[in-house]
């Protein structure tokens, strides 16, 4: 075989193989992707199957993880396809198989590397026939771009995954109480909710609307200082300001309530989801309780924020009043004082509404706790009564009365301390018979016959109640609020009796003189209940109450 | 990734173009192109006498063309002797038949020195060639002779010569030994030693004819018809063809394949299959690989190709390897045959070859 012929054949074969090598790499890429997908789907199916038997971390079960794995497979396949060495002999072997002539192109590649060792009698005709076959066969016919046979296994793995997901029932082999992954997931979810609520509360408190109201108050003050204000204009502005405060309070309240409702709904959904799996999961229950606790904290935070804002507004108006006292007529002063009073009333309403939310939350907690722990112990009737009582209180508030008259008892406003875990409520201002305690849900009323009802969430006494024993007691004539809480399972009852009104309630007994509360908002009345003088009967009530909770 | 190919493309052609292809002898191309036709004519002439047994005939012809010896195993009456005799007639080559018996002596095969009178009245030893001095030697029922006598063929088969009384006598070429053995009557026989078995290029199992073939045999042999064959090839032509066939190129991957197949029959080798490790006592010698490659060359050329394919090696693998695989007693107990082991080896090596490239496309 002469040199030009040999060179021509060599170039022809190499050109053909260069083109076919691209197709070969494309096939390798498709094959590796399918191989990786098959592996990912198989592992996913195994994870889902295992997840039916034992709890697995959420990040392992999430579709994001699956998508990340798929993306990794595709990227790794691409990289591997590009960097994988493809020798001429390997490609030739593949071509031989595709054209159905094992060893032909492979031999051609080998012979071209050592043409001097090959008998010309064979080399020339062989190369000629090989080039002829390669040139007469289209690239697509030699290495067709078609789905590798591996796709069957990929589809099979996908079908298995779907079948396991849809048809394999949940059968926990490992108790979820022992499952650290579940607890960790719930704690993480709780933290996420907490973060979301914190942000929402913060956003609300610094809204533009607040700034606008403050700015308006300052503007009024400046104009009164400059004696340029018209009294009628001042009246209009103050009315507008008051209305703004009211509208804002309404929005805040509805927003806050909605937030609370959504959170509680979420908690309830999680619990139902777990219960639908037929698992009594103490770990999950603890996690949900923790979430509820977080919600209460946030609720308190939001309420404090609102309270602070309203107080600031009130102060601004009061400042306005004081600054311009000598420049306003008596009629104007009265008007402003009335407006300020109305704003304070609005402020009080905000507090009350906020506490209604807390009552709702505590009620839900009570219901949940009872349904889980001691339905048999406490009974459904009592729970139903509590729920109805709550509904009545809410209805009364919605009707604008801002007062609630429990079971026809004497009229009285109410105050609810923001408590950790268990709150306290009591009638705050009874003017009638001392035995008719103004307490509502959450209070203990003690009548003359010594009969007591034990609330689920709080203990208190009515005005003049002899909860503390005889009238000769040091606390005679005081309205008594009792806050308490359980520090923890197995701990001793922690009752700290102090009498600081308006301080953050954290397990105190507060004693407030009747008649001192009304009209003394923001003031503190202190009185001390000497330790060691608590009647044994009261202690027994407390003890029985917590036994019931347990 | 494609560095190798790009380097090849950019590489100047001078390195390979400077190689001067070897001259082609005049007439080789024509002879090569006529080889298949000649092969078909030989088969056709043999077919006039031998009914059926195409695989046997093909294998015998391939061995004859490349210079190998054949061991035919089959029950009596299947036409083994007739095949060899007919082949010698078609090829116009000398033929001798040696009926191996227990009392057959080596000199009965190789020949011996005889004391003869010289022209001057003296006496001298003169070598009287034995039946081995023929182009085609039929060693009938070779396993009935003693090992000593069987080994008399060793030198002839391997070296193409015999040594008698220290004097080496070269056999005429082409030289082809066709041995037959009966697998049934083993009493009073001497199984061929492995060394001698290894000298046979192929071992062919001669089977029974089919119904149609049997009918044809009956018609031909019972009606008194005189069947004669024509001579279509001679010894010198065969030798020249053999030289051409030996030059058939084999690629390195195909050589590697043959080597892997042979290594896979060695139970102590890493290439050995599980079946081999369990049932094989001794694997195939390098002569087995040679037989595969040489047989593959002939098959490639007869198929009209100028290169040897894996399939060519596979086609001759059974006949080239089955008598070289020595099974253990466990294999005999389990009824495992050498053919089964070789088939397993071929299959496993094929799969490994695909795995080697990491392809499952």
Q: Quick one: CATH superfamily of the largest domain in chain B? A: P-loop containing nucleotide triphosphate hydrolases
CATH-scheme architecture of the largest domain in chain B: 3-Layer(aba) Sandwich
Bin the strand percentage of chain A: under 5%
Q: Please tally the helical runs of chain A, counting DSSP H or I stretches of 4 or more residues.
A: 16
Distance between the termini of chain B: 20 Å
Can you tag this structure with a few keywords?
heterodimer; A: 550 residues; mainly alpha; 4-stranded mixed beta sheet; two-stranded antiparallel sheet; 6 strands; elongated; B: 361 residues; alpha/beta; Rossmann fold; Helicase, Ruva Protein, domain 3; 5-stranded parallel beta sheet; 17 helices; disordered N terminus
Notes on the protein architecture:
- The complex is a heterodimer of chains A (550) and B (361).
- Chain A contains 16 helices and six strands.
- Chain A has 550 residues and is mainly alpha-helical.
- In chain A, strand 1 (414-416) and strand 2 (425-427) form a beta hairpin.
- The longest helix of chain A is centred in the first third of the chain and has 51 residues, at 3-53.
- Chain A starts with a helix and ends with a helix.
- Residues 366-384 and 397-535 of chain A have low confidence and may be disordered.
- In chain B, the strands form four sheets. In chain B, strands 2-5-8-1-9 form a five-stranded parallel sheet. Chain B has a two-stranded antiparallel ribbon with strand order 3-4. A two-stranded antiparallel sheet of chain B has the order 6-7.
- In chain B, strand 3 (111-117) and strand 4 (123-129) form a beta hairpin.
- In chain B, helix 14 crosses helix 15 (310-321) and helix 15 (310-321) packs antiparallel against helix 17 (338-356).
- The two termini of chain B are 20 Å apart.
- Residues 1-24 of chain B have low confidence and may be disordered.
- Classes of the chains: A mainly alpha (550), B alpha/beta (361).
- Chain A binds chain B through residues 1-3, 6-7, 10, 14, 17-18, 21, 25, 27-28, 31, 35, 82-90, 93-94, 101-104, 106-108, 110-112, 115-126, 129, 148-150, and chain B through 1-2, 4-5, 8-9, 13, 16-17, 19-24, 28-29, 32, 244, 247-254, 305-311, 357, 359-361.
